[in-house]
Design goal:
The complex is a heterodimer of chains A (175) and B (515). Chain A is mainly α and 175 residues long. Helix content of chain A is 50%, strand content 0%. In chain A, helix 2 packs across helix 4, helix 4 packs across helix 5 and helix 4 packs across helix 6. The chains are: A mainly alpha (175), B alpha/beta (515). The complex binds flavin-adenine dinucleotide and iron/sulfur cluster.
């Protein structure tokens, strides 16, 4: 894919560009289907792949993500409708750009204007992708950038022998 | 029929909950009514926690003072925003948990400097209660520190310095500053998650947990708490005899009277004087304990000093790992600096930092982020400035009430030029530290006082002309009205107040109920 394949405006087709109120989409009684959950997990995996920063079969990562999605869809404000929207947005992107490009474009070159999310595409980015990115970093994605801990990472007991952060080791000359 | 209690506590924060717990420890049958103006905010809620992390949404922020409810009218702005939680459990619901003892000289401020006030008891008198307070708050600290004399080790070991603290530790040593480990309130179950302003596992002390515990303990058959029930005045039978309080039930809009043998005002340093000011009657025309117009005076808190520097490289690729500080020093919190005003030094916990997720959200590729991680980076040395309570600095009532039924307020805080000179001297020293770390200084400032450590508004004093309470925290001129709050502190010291507050809560409970 070259830059010419994408115009200067936002990526996607009619579905992605459909206008929406910037506020969280209301849930209309629907629950996430298994297919939608699988697609959302895939979206999360693609975040790690794009930035090459996590091991996706780690149980810790998946359980953090599952807990996050559960908290967001079981309690108000409820994200179920946003999650369904994001799955449809990604589907249209895949149809247009192909599997290997759709995610990279969504993450890195989406052309969404700044400001409140006014389209389906912008909703998917703001309410789903951006929040999944934070979960990625918190739930272990920070480690590949060099850290041992991060605000929100359940590091484990500090009484363990292993330090939970990059710890200060005084040089020999110090007392 | 109006129910009669042994005690009414006004406020469910760390002061009220600690003293109530200790009194119930001595006799579980004691009847206690605890009134709390604010609502309950759910603790350890995973959705709140995720939203706090991912959206930076603080679950209790809706209880903060709103513009229009407070006014700062002095020559120096007073920062109200985020300075307290009006809710079940009080302000420790969002505190950082830094737990430092005052130093012996802090209790003799007036005698040693001719300014501020003296406490009516000494560090040595309070020392056994500091031990209890540290245990109650589960303080993790360094036994070898020797900043203040201690009779017992800390209940838990300290959090170790982080690698990013290292360069500042080395600079401290060059400047003759002794580095120390920040003592913080963390239970053993802490998972080093670093989101302590909303802990997902309840490992950082909060007044909420103590009130929950008191409610859940089936032995406490006569303990009651009522949220959304602001006390509106303290009631008297005669000048000396307090009979109870009147409060507003916010759920029904009704005014209710509750009677008690003793009333303990634990409403924080803003509301404690306000409640007494509102309690006007034929015996106390200006409010209870206010014959000498001292309520609300001597208001003081901490202002932050900050020196920030930038280095072009970040070879170690440091970013923030804990959201609480690990490095501090009390080398400028000594008798030598007390006359002009001491400072308490600590490293800004959040620096160096690179918000990795924000860069990803912004569409930066891995390669670009790796370059950004290599530098530049920032560091910051911060300090709390000790100031002395002054008669002209005061909190007063403003017309109207806030949404919790509490009166609006004004604070007049004027700063003397010598306090600014002292701050500047300390800032120069701090700048020297940052420079000797090899950083270029890009910010150096004295901020306005933050209301989070407000003290002094009902300070203790040997006579009614000098203070609102006596050394037992009883309001002068009354038999049975007590104040347990930072409000009674006659000095602000350079360090955070809550460990000392917790110690005086234990002391008060012993005074009232120890066999
Ligand atoms: C952001 C922040 C961080 C902090 N971090 C630290 C720290 O690291 N270390 C430290 O030592 N201190 C810290 N503090 C200060 C600490 O929170 C306070 O010293 C402490 O909580 C005071 O306890 P308290 O019980 O006196 O008051 P509060 O905890 O404020 O409790 C008073 C309670 O009384 C209620 N109330 C008020 N008026 C009435 C009324 N009329 N009727 C009924 N109820 C009423 C209030 O709603 C409140 O719940 C911090 C403060 C802030 C704002
Ligand atoms: S570090 Fe984590 S587990 Fe420990 S007190 Fe803070 S938030 Fe709770």
């Amino acid at each position: 894919m070259t830059d010419q394949d994408v115009s200067n405006g936002p990526i996607g087709g009619d579905f992605c560009h459909a206008p929406l109120d910037p506020r969280l989409l209301p849930r209309e009684g629907q629950n996430l289907t298994q297919h939608e959950r699988d697609e959302l997990w895939r979206l999360f995996v693609e975040i790690g792949r794009c930035w090459n920063n996590v091991i996706h079969d780690s149980a810790n990562l998946k359980s953090s993500w599952l807990e996050f999605v559960e908290a967001k869809t079981a309690q108000d404000p409820n994200y179920t409708a946003e999650y369904s929207n994001a799955v449809s947005v990604v589907q249209e992107l895949i149809e247009i750009y192909g599997e290997s490009n759709a995610y990279t474009l969504l993450f890195l070159r989406n052309g969404i204007p700044e400001g409140p999310p006014m389209t389906r595409l912008a909703h998917a980015k703001r309410y789903v992708v951006d929040e999944f990115i934070r979960v990625n970093i918190i739930a272990s994605g920070h480690k590949s950038f060099g850290g041992r801990n991060y605000k929100g990472y359940l590091g484990g007991s500090r009484y363990n022998r292993l330090p939970r952060v990059r710890a200060y080791e005084p040089s020999e000359t110090q007392s | 029929m109006i129910k009669e209690y042994e005690y009414i506590f006004v406020g469910s924060g760390v002061a009220g909950s600690t003293a109530a717990k200790r009194i119930l420890h001595y006799n579980h049958n004691t009847s206690i009514l605890m009134l709390e103006a604010g609502p309950e905010v759910k603790a350890k809620d995973r959705r709140y926690w995720w939203d706090y992390l991912v959206l930076n949404r603080q679950p209790y922020a809706f209880t903060y003072d709103q513009p229009g409810e407070t006014q700062s009218i002095g020559d120096t702005g007073w920062v109200f925003d985020g300075s307290r939680v009006t809710g079940y459990g009080g302000s420790t619901v969002h505190w950082g948990g830094w737990c430092l003892r005052y130093k012996p000289e802090d209790f003799e401020l007036f005698s040693r400097t001719g300014e501020g006030g003296d406490w009516l008891f000494s560090y040595d008198d309070l020392e056994p209660y500091y031990v209890q307070a540290e245990d109650h708050l589960s303080v993790c600290g360094d036994d070898n520190e020797n900043w203040s004399p201690r009779s017992q080790p800390y209940p838990r070991p300290p959090f170790e310095w982080t690698a990013a603290d290292g360069e500042m530790i080395e600079a401290f040593e060059k400047h003759g500053i002794k580095p120390g480990k920040m003592p913080v309130a963390r239970y053993r179950k802490c998972m080093t998650t670093g989101t302590c302003k909303y802990c997902p596992v309840g490992a950082r002390f909060s007044g909420q947990y103590i009130v929950d515990e008191l409610r859940a303990d089936s032995r406490n058959v006569n303990f009651e708490i009522r949220s959304e029930s602001p006390a509106t005045q303290v009631l008297v039978g005669s000048k000396r005899r307090i009979t109870g309080v009147e409060y507003l039930d916010l759920k029904t809009g009704e005014k209710v009277v509750a009677r008690a043998n003793k009333v303990i005002v634990c409403s924080g340093a803003y509301e404690s004087p306000k409640l007494l000011m509102l309690s006007r009657n034929r015996h106390w025309e200006n409010g209870i304990g206010n014959e000498h117009d001292l309520l609300g005076r001597y208001v003081v808190s901490h202002s932050m000093l900050k020196v920030r520097g930038e280095s072009l490289r970040n070879d170690e690729r440091w970013f923030q790992e804990y959201d609480f500080p690990t490095l501090m020093s009390r080398s400028y919190d000594t008798p030598e600096y007390q006359k002009d005003g001491k400072i308490f030094l600590f490293k800004n916990r959040a620096l160096p930092n690179i918000d990795l997720a924000a860069l990803m959200i912004d569409g930066k590729s891995r390669k670009e982020i790796d370059v950004i991680l290599g530098g530049p980076r920032e560091t910051e040395l911060q300090a709390f400035l000790e100031e002395k309570g002054r008669h002209g600095n005061r909190l007063t009532l403003a017309p109207g009430k806030n949404r919790f039924g509490l009166p609006k307020m004004k604070i007049e805080f004027n700063r003397l030029p010598k306090a600014i000179d002292n701050a500047n001297k300390h800032l120069d020293m701090m700048e020297g530290v940052i420079k000797s770390m090899g950083y270029t200084v890009n910010r150096k400032e004295l901020q306005d006082p933050g209301g989070h450590h407000t003290s002094g508004t009902c300070r203790m004093g040997a006579t009614p002309e000098l203070g609102i309470t006596d050394g037992d925290l009883r309001v002068h001129g009354t038999d049975n009205l007590y104040i347990c709050s930072n409000a009674v502190f006659p000095s602000g010291s350079a360090v955070n107040p809550t460990l000392t507050l917790t110690a005086i809560a234990f002391r008060l409970a012993d005074h009232l109920a120890a066999p």
